[in-house]
Amino acid sequence: MSTPIVVHFGPEICGAYGSATEREWLVTNGLGGFACGTVAGIQTRRYHGLLIASLPEIGRTLLVAKVEEVLRYAGGEYALSANRWASGTVEPQGFRFIQEFHLAGSIPVWRFACADAVLEKRVWMQDNANTTFIRYDLIHGSAPAELEVKILVNYRGIHHTTRAAEWKTSVTPVPRGLCVVPREGATPVYLLSDVGEAEARQEWYRDYDLPAERERGLDDREDHLLAGVFRARLSPGGSATFALSTEPAPALTGRAGLAAREALDQRLLENWIAAHPRASLEAPHWIWQFVLAAAQFPVRRRGSDGREKWSIIAGYPWFGEWGRDATIALPGLALETGRLDIARSVLSEFPGFIQQGLLPNTFSESGEAGSYNSVDAMLWYIHALQQYALQTADLSVVREVFDLLASAVDCYARGTRYGIHADPADGLLYAGEPGTQITWMDAKVGDHVITPRIGKAVEVNALWFNALRAMARFAAELGKPANEYARLAERVKTSFGRFWNADKDCCFDVIDGPAGNDASLRPNQIFAVSLPESPLGAAERKRVVDFCALRLVTPHGLRSLDAAEANYRGHYGGSPAERDDAYHQGSVWGWLLGPFVLAHLRVYGDAARAFAFLEPMAHHLSAGGLGSVSEIFDGEAPFAPRGAFAQAWSAAEILRAWRACYDAGLRIEDSAKRE
Questions:
Q1: Positive or negative CA dihedral for 327, 331, 332, 335?
Q2: Which of 59, 145, 252, 555 has its CA 20 to 30 A from that of 71?
């Protein structure tokens, strides 16, 4: 089975500085480690690097920053790398030699045209290891060529930058290359090649310019240390493979490393096909790429008992593990792709972190629970478990965690941290207190919460109703008392009518807040339609969907605030404070497109029309984080991608919505045949 090529550019994109630096590639290792950069080869972020390793006790660390490549061929010298310096100079400009770029499954591939020679380069990471491979193949040529590769290292956390310093660096020859200890006490990194001859160096390359960091109002200079120079002679048809690794002996023989990565991509697609045979085979090719994108976010962790477990990275390049993001993304990342082992692991492990009914909002780099300021992570967990039980008919996890969930729901009802409690007057869930941000709209600048949303938030109560209904069903299936959950759910459904804003013919965003009801026109009400259990009547569901379609929908998701609102911000950029101010005040969120499509499908039953809202995402796969989905977009055309260039819940919810459209269309088709 060959993977369809979805992302594919020629020199019209690759050879232009602007378009080639706006497009970013990403490869991951299933541990939280990754490599990423621009198609041009120019580093524009502090997060760009060839080996960002996930190190125990330390976290994600930049070990190998980049390579500087020169091909000497037929009397000519071709500098294939590219850099932007603090002076503003772009030199060398190797992107001018890029004939083609494409994604072969999850693997980025470049073809450089140097006179009549064509050199192919690909980058990938070994699964479950802090190892990045780079392979060069001289595809065409009328004579042999010499390839020189300079490898620059670093040693810092991913959120920082390095300036040249008097490090006590050790560069030691080892079989097939060099062992580098960048500074005293650092993790050794091995720079190895199957054919290249290595020469040790210690020389700082100073003042790489990072324009994307400058745009974010952050430090925009970086220095890297040249640790080694490799030279390899390539005959036409010949190849050279480099391994950048924390392991002393990665698989460098022949195509072993590449074959292992290609085989992993195939297994990921086969898992998906096995889970959804007809849907997968009739899916458009861009959905296949989403399946591979979904595999970038699950990561392995070693539990305190020594067992391997799974968690979810919220996004690349800077997000770690987030409870809310993981529970929202899990159905799309694991159930839709046929990776039930991941779903079972996360669903079994997460309840162990419950404190006073709450799941963590964030986790540390080592996988320990961090802050708990999330009212909805627990409710999204119940939704994920609900989806798992529905799709697998496996009640073993439900049975395992039910008592913990029952205790959590009781904490929500009686009252817990951050003012979370069910109001005795109407059964609706109240949450929030001054100075905290506990809904998914969680931007905060210093002590100022941008969207505090204190009170009874509409999506929180839609989730609360769905959770109570799910708990009633779980209890009944396990032979436990279910009446109280059902009673509470009916009370919430009756009271949910209080959210209806007759003046605007849609839902209030928050009711019973410190200043009364909040009539801001936001997308959060869509969950009252999209969740499996809806507290709204049919007429109100239609009005909510119509409101979102007319006021909030864009080609890449839903605006977080209607453009007519006074606080609307149509552009996301500037300093951290400016960006946080726009984060939920108009920025488009890709993940919201999934719930909108599910809600539209529920209301109108038109699978083709609902699917049409997803189709623009096929183009986005080639526009920002290549082969994946960005976190957010500007609220105005051309809806430029912003934020993290690969976001878990964005990819997950689009996969989930696509299959719902397919299944609905299939049911309609089968019904027509029967008639």
A1: positive
A2: 252
Q: Is the pLDDT of residue 309 over 80?
A: yes
Q: Where does 534-641 have alpha helices with state H?
A: 538-551, 576-583, 593-604, 607-612, 616-620
Structure tokens at 227: 């640790």
The strand pairing partners of 315, in sequence order, are 647
Contact 432, 464 (CB under 8 A): no
How far is the C-alpha of 521 from the C-alpha of 562, rounded, in Å? 6
Residue range of the domain that includes 184: 8-264
Could you tell me if residue 297 is inside a domain? no
For residue 26, give the nearest of 283, 338, 319 by alpha carbon. 319
Task: Retrieve residue 74's tokens.
Answer: 């037929």
Q: Is residue 539 a contact partner of residue 545, using CB atoms and an 8 Å limit?
A: no
Q: Tell me if 215 is assigned to some domain.
A: yes
- Segment 303-316 shows an average pLDDT of 86
Residue 340: inside a domain, yes or no?
no
Q: What secondary structure does DSSP assign to 360-376, as a single string? A: -SBB-TTS-B-----SS
- Measured distance CA(119)–CA(121) in Å, rounded: 7
What residue type is assigned to position 652 of the chain? A
Spatial CA neighbour of 17 closest among 120, 96, 118, 129:
96
Angle among Cα 219, 442, 214 to the nearest 5 degrees reads: 15
Q: Model pTM greater than 0.90?
A: yes
**φ, ψ (nearest 5 deg) of residue 662:** -60, -50
Could you give the count of Cα atoms lying within 13 Å of 392 in the half-sphere of its Cβ? 21
Tell me the CB-side half-sphere exposure of residue 215, using CA atoms within 13 A: 11
Cβ neighbours of residue 608 closer than 8 Å, sequence gap 6 or more: 661, 665
Distance CA 497, CA 3 (A): 49
User: Are the beta carbons of 440 and 395 closer than 8 angstroms?
Assistant: no
Q: Examine residue 638 and say whether the peptide bond preceding it is cis (omega within 30 degrees of 0).
A: yes
Confidence of residue 304 (pLDDT cuts 50, 70, 90): low
Query: What span, in angstroms and rounded, lies between the C-alpha atoms of 549 and 613?
Result: 10
End residue of a domain, out of 221, 246, 264: 264
Structure token pair of residue 487: 């009673």
Q: How many CB atoms lie within 10 A of CB 422?
A: 22
Final residue of a structural domain among 208, 239, 264: 264
Helix pair 458-477, 377-392: axis angle to 10 deg: 40
DSSP letters of 169-197? -EEEEETTEEEEE-STTPPPEEEEESSPE
Residue 197, domain CATH: 2.70.98
Q: For 216-257, what is the HEC assignment?
A: CCCCCEEEEEEEEEEEEEECCCCEEEEEEECCCCCCCCCCHH
Residues paired with residue 37 on neighbouring β-strands, in sequence order: 25
- Can you read off the two tokens belonging to residue 10? 């020629």
